Amino acid sequence: MTVPCVRVRREDGEATRQRLEAEGLLSETHDIAVDGEWLYVPVATTDEVPTDLAVVAHDAPVRETQTMPRDILGFEPTYERLGDVIILDEDDPERARAIADAVMESDIRAATVVNKLSKIKGKERVRDWSVLAGDGTETVHREYGAEFLLDIATVYFSPRLATERHRVVEQVEPAENAFDMFAGVGPYAIPMAMQGADVVATDINEAAIEYLRENARRNGVEDRVEAVAGDVREAIPDYADWADRLVMNLPHSADAFVDTAVALASTDAVIHFYDIQHEDDPYSPGEAAIREAAEPEYEVTVETRHEVRTYAPHEVNVVLDVRLTRR
Question: pTM for the whole thing?
Answer without folding.
Answer: 0.81
